[in-house]
From TrEMBL:
Coiled-coil spans in chain: none
GO molecular function: 4-aminobutyrate:2-oxoglutarate transaminase activity; pyridoxal phosphate binding
Coiled coil keyword on record: no
Protein name: 4-aminobutyrate aminotransferase
Length: 471
């Protein structure tokens, strides 16, 4: 498998400072903290010095990056081909004259949508609504579900009654109908008010924020390795499906749609089988409930398919697929039948950004031209095999190895151990090695770029082996 060539990418991480974060980062954060909360900041990055799979901090330390701006960098820092494109007149004019795409689209916007987003549209979906981020993408999908269900309820009529128009202005029925969205335990779908009602990953995301009283169904808690726990996992998925069916039949308000991640990223990298998702689709179809697949984190080639739900081999596509992160643009795929029945309803000022469309156009071309989905599969197989070896020697530090492609994770025995491993990977003695992050309660997640090759994977494995040996 030919790896993605990146001129001037370093061969390995380098170390400058003896502490982490370094002196310059600490000083910069003192200034920043006076005007913005910095409690979640790890270090201050040097954008000019970051390149390919390596992120550089302002102290001069260069780390192999398998966190990648929370899974959102696709083809490397300072990709030279993308840099050249960004200097073009088209990019500059779009940057300084950002258009309101829903009212005044650019002349090339249709071509951009076709060559960027629709070129890789999930099978069976032919429409795309562009947005800014993952949360707004899911919010747009929620609104589309409610409007579509109401349209069906009116027998296809686009006309509203006076009572509907009046009551919606005071948030009352029938203009503000009692629909809901079902999500799953440990799910994460965003931090805006609507998506928080479907987010179930950590209390800190939700506490103090009013939420809709929407249902939550159990998501399978599988045992790993999957191939050694087949019967247990089948029974666990069956239990969850039975409870899911019970909830949709008995919930106090009608369920317009469900939203589900192919792999629960923020909630702890939780997996389920293709059969589980196939059953969800069957049940939703039979119950006239729409299905939203949240591919914000799993989408764009990282699992060895362009969209993770392609692994399910559904006979009927989801009604909506949301995306963001590695596509560098948010958005929603759907079909013409679920387009909003009136203008200005699913709408906002910018409805995305031409520059992000151009960037997505480049990313899609790089993936397809360089077969980066296959690279993710090849490197993922190597990573999983090596992580299993480490797990056999250090089961309290590395356990429950799982993943598809390079979308991978493992567990530590508890939160404190997980956090210490992440810290040590950044500062292993005096050798800063790898920038990585956690998910869920005790999971370490790997979210490398699509240009992450075997040589990078070997550096990661060597660093983790050293950390475990000296833990």
């Amino acid at each position: 498998m030919t790896e993605y060539s990146f001129l001037n990418e370093p061969e390995k991480p380098t170390v400058i400072s003896k502490q982490f974060p370094g002196e310059k980062s600490a000083k910069n954060l003192q200034r920043l903290d006076k005007i913005q909360d910095t409690r979640s900041v790890v270090f201050v990055q040097d954008l000019d010095g970051s390149i390919g799979n390596y992120i550089k901090d302002i102290d001069g330390n260069l780390l192999l990056d398998v966190y990648c701006q929370i899974s959102s960098i696709a083809v490397g820092y300072n990709n030279p081909r993308l840099t050249e494109l960004a200097k073009s007149d088209k990019w500059v004019k779009a940057a300084i004259n950002r258009p309101c795409l829903g009212v005044f689209p650019c002349e090339d916007w249709a071509e951009t949508l076709e060559s960027a987003f629709l070129r890789v549209a999930p099978k069976g979906l032919n429409q795309v609504f562009t947005a800014t981020c993952g949360s707004t993408s899911n919010e747009i999908a929620f609104k589309a579900c409610f409007m579509h269900q109401q349209l069906l309820k009116r027998g296809g009529s686009k006309d509203f009654t006076n009572e509907e128009l009046t009551s919606c202005m005071v948030n009352e029925v029938p203009g503000s109908p009692n629909w809901c969205i079902l999500s799953f335990k440990s799910a994460f779908h965003g931090r805006t008010l609507g998506t928080l009602s479907t987010t179930r990953s950590k209390p800190i995301h939700k506490v103090d924020i009013p939420s809709f009283h929407w249902p939550v169904a159990p998501f399978p808690s599988l045992k790993y390795p999957l191939e050694e726990n087949i019967q247990y996992n089948l029974e666990e998925e069956k239990r969850c499906l039975l409870e899911f069916e019970r909830i949709i039949k008995t919930w106090e308000t009608p369920i317009a749609a469900i939203i589900v991640e192919p792999i629960q990223g923020e909630g702890g990298d939780n997996h389920a089988s293709p059969q589980f998702f196939t059953e969800l689709r069957r049940i939703t179809r039979e119950s006239n409930i729409l299905m939203i697949v949240d591919e914000v984190q799993t989408g764009v080639a990282t699992t060895g398919k362009f969209w993770a739900h392609e692994h399910w081999n559904l006979s009927t596509p989801p009604d909506f697929v949301t995306f963001s992160k590695k596509m560098q643009s948010g958005g929603v795929y759907h079909n013409l039948s679920t387009r909003a029945p009136h203008p200005y309803r699913n709408f906002n000022t910018w409805m995305g950004d031409p520059i992000r469309g151009y960037q997505a156009q480049f990313i899609v071309s790089e993936i397809l031209d360089n077969n980066l989905t296959q690279l993710a599969t090849t490197v993922g197989e190597y990573l999983k095999a090596e992580l299993m070896k480490i797990s056999a020697s250090y089961p309290d530090l590395v356990a429950n190895v799982r993943g598809q492609g390079t979308f991978m994770a493992f567990d530590s025995v508890d939160t404190a151990t997980r956090d210490k491993i992440i810290s040590l990977m950044r500062l292993n003695g005096l050798q800063q090695r790898v920038n990585m992050g956690g998910s869920g309660v005790k999971s370490v997640r790997l979210r490398p770029m699509l240009i992450f090759g075997l040589k990078h994977a070997k550096i990661f494995v060597e660093a983790l082996q050293l950390v475990c040996k000296n833990y």
